[in-house]
Amino acid sequence: MAQVSIRINGRSYDIACDDGQEDRIHALAGYVDERVKEISDAVGQIGEQRLLVMTSLLIADELGMAHEKLEKPASPAAEAGSISAAESDALADNIESMAERVEALADRLNKD
């Protein structure tokens, strides 16, 4: 199992991950850090724990909206340019996989 050091909101975290997932973890951490900075710029430094909770909720909301888009049936006008059922299933699987990874990362952060 690999060990990765990431920075979020100026703080360093050591995260364990599967071998070969280091670049993915760095990319995810970069995304989370960007979102933390956006919230921090909007509301100020409100405490690290609260800031991370707000960021988690924001990312969960984004994920939820993506799920809703995939589950909504396309209108007849939109169907002409819509993706195939197989592509939709692949996207749904990808989103579900991302959600599982985020949950696993959250569990690992809670253990540290």
Can you give a write-up of this model?
Strands 1-2 form a two-stranded antiparallel sheet. It is built from four helices and two strands, in the order ββαααα. The model has no long low-confidence stretch (mean pLDDT 83). The protein is of the alpha+beta class.
Q: How many H/I helices?
A: 4
Q: What fraction, in percent, of the residue positions are helical? A: 55-70%
Number of strands: 2
- Class derived from helix and strand content: alpha+beta
Low-confidence stretches: none
Elements, N to C (H/E)? EEHHHH
User: How large a portion of the residues is in β-strands, by DSSP E?
Assistant: 5-15%
The rounded Rg comes to: 17 Å
For the largest sheet, list the strands in their spatial order. 1-2
Globular, elongated, flat, extended or rod-shaped: what is the shape? Answer: globular
Give the biggest sheet: 2 strands, antiparallel
Mean pLDDT: 83
Q: State the separation between the terminal residues, measured CA to CA.
A: 16 Å
Task: Describe the SSE topology.
Elements: E1 2-8, E2 11-17, H1 22-43, H2 48-71, H3 76-79, H4 85-111
Antiparallel strand pairs: 1-2
Give the gist of this structure.
The chain has 112 residues and is α+β, with helices and mostly antiparallel strands. It has helices spanning 22-43, 48-71, 76-79, 85-111, and strands at 2-8, 11-17.
